[in-house]
């Protein structure tokens, strides 16, 4: 918070001094006392430059000082074999960031795949699923175009293959570093589809996969979400919302406004779930996550740019994906952790996919008090089910 506060103060000061400088320059052009004005303008310009340079330095230091807090037990001590690390790695020519956390470096490795595309959940997972750090080395990956890895690749050049290639490269790095033959995968929303892609192409690298907020068919999901939003709005008599939504037309959307068109009904559904009394701990604590020390000042900006720009450029490349057609046989155990009240990723599609899927083991586990994010809505049960499915605990 220190760097944020200092950044805001310096930014406000720079804005005021910059505005004052422009006013003085204008006044000088119409004044007869140009010599007197020039001296004041010079001083104000020097002050503006100093404040601007100081702010740049604050931004740079905040980036360099980003960190993930150490593992601490109930007595306030750090376990001897624990790990808490924020690391920049390079995969396929792209520089990306991961956090690696666990009470014991010799525990199995679990890689969490965030939603999006363009989302970063590095801080959120640390807050919500800290229990898993006692049983696994939990790895969070800011994928290209998201959070700390926003600049890893131009968003317009990011494809599904980009994520699969880098996800596999990260997997191999983790296997080698922690001397593991295989690792575990958990994927959330978009990450649930990415997890399926990875275990399909590289089954030899993964023990098992858990998908939550599971995406099945991206184009059909958007159409169903659009219709669901209209249905809810009709029940509420929200005629203005219906009019505005119908003006945008039915998805899928293409072009430069995908994010904002989709956000119209997706945010409506999210707000509806947040008000559902059957859903516990309704959603993300964005301010808490944004203020977390994993993110420097630029990372906080990229936090939002990923959700806007990366989602816009990448999501429209996902419309031809349907797991029911292309991923019906997998060689890795698969578990679906599904919120009973999820209306973002339609649960009927997950049930259909689970029925036709062939895998060494498959299971659909319902979270009765969850929406799209059981790992947040019912985090204690989520951790218990992870341990039960993956470790038999």
Task: Report on this structure.
With about 400 residues, the protein is of the alpha/beta class. The protein has two domains: about 60 residues; about 240 residues, Alpha/Beta hydrolase fold, catalytic domain (Rossmann fold). It is about 50% helix and about 15% strand. The chain is built from 14 helices and eight strands. The chain has an eight-stranded mixed sheet, sandwiched between helices. Helix 1 packs antiparallel against helix 2, helix 6 runs antiparallel to helix 7 and helix 6 crosses helix 8. The longest helix has about 30 residues. The radius of gyration is 24 Å and the shape is globular. The two termini are about 40 Å apart. The model has no long low-confidence stretch (mean pLDDT about 95).
Low-confidence runs: none
Task: Describe the oligomeric state of these chains in a short phrase.
Answer: single chain
Query: For the record, what CATH class of the largest domain applies?
Result: Alpha Beta
Determine the N-to-C terminus distance: 39 Å
Largest sheet: 8 strands, mixed
Strand order of the largest sheet: 1-2-4-3-5-6-7-8
- Looking at the structure, what is the overall shape? globular
Helix content: 40-55%
Element-by-element helix/strand order = HHEEEHEHEHEHHHHHHEHEHH
Q: Round the Cα radius of gyration to an integer and report it.
A: 24 Å
Share of residues in strands: 5-15%
Question: How many domains?
Answer: 2
* CATH superfamily grouping of the largest domain: Alpha/Beta hydrolase fold, catalytic domain
Average pLDDT confidence is 94
CATH-derived architecture of the largest domain: 3-Layer(aba) Sandwich
Total strand segments: 8
At the fold tier of CATH, the topology name of the largest domain is Rossmann fold
Number of H/I helices:
14
Going by helix content, strand content and strand pairing, the class is alpha/beta
């Amino acid at each position: 918070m220190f760097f944020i506060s200092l950044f805001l103060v310096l930014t406000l000061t720079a804005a005021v001094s910059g505005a004052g400088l422009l006013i003085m320059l204008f006044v000088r052009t119409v004044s007869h006392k140009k010599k007197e004005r020039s001296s004041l303008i010079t001083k104000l310009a020097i002050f503006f430059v100093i404040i601007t340079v100081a702010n740049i330095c604050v931004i740079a230091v905040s980036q360099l000082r980003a960190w993930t807090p150490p593992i601490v037990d109930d007595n306030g001590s750090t376990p001897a074999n624990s790990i808490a690390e924020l690391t920049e790695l390079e995969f396929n020519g792209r520089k990306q960031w991961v956090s690696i956390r666990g009470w014991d470096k010799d525990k199995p490795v679990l890689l969490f795949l965030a939603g999006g595309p363009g989302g970063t959940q590095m801080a959120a997972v640390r807050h919500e699923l800290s229990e898993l750090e006692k049983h696994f080395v939990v790895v969070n990956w800011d994928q290209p175009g998201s959070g700390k890895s926003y600049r890893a690749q131009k968003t317009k050049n990011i494809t599904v293959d980009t994520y699969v290639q880098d996800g596999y490269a990260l997997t191999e790095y983790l296997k080698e570093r922690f001397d593991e033959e295989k690792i575990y995968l958990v994927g959330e929303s978009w990450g649930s589809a990415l997890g399926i892609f990875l275990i399909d192409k590289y089954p030899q690298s993964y023990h098992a996969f858990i998908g939550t907020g599971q995406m099945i068919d991206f184009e059909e999901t958007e159409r169903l979400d659009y219709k669901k939003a209209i249905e809810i709005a009709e029940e509420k008599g929200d005629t203005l919302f219906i009019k505005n939504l119908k003006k945008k037309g039915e998805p899928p959307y293409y072009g430069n406004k995908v994010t904002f068109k989709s956000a119209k009904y997706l945010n409506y559904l999210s707000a509806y779930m947040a008000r559902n009394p059957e859903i516990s701990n309704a959603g993300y604590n964005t301010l808490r996550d944004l203020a977390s020390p994993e993110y420097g000042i630029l990372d906080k900006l990229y936090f939002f740019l990923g959700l806007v720009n990366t989602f816009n450029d990448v999501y429209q490349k996902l419309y031809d994906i349907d797991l029911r057609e292309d991923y019906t046989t997998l060689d890795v155990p698969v578990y679906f952790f599904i919120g009973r009240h999820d209306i973002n990723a339609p649960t009927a599609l997950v049930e259909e996919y689970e029925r036709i899927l062939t895998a060494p083991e498959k299971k659909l586990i319902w979270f009765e008090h969850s929406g799209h994010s059981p790992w947040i809505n019912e985090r204690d049960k989520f951790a218990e089910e992870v341990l039960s499915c993956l470790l038999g605990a």
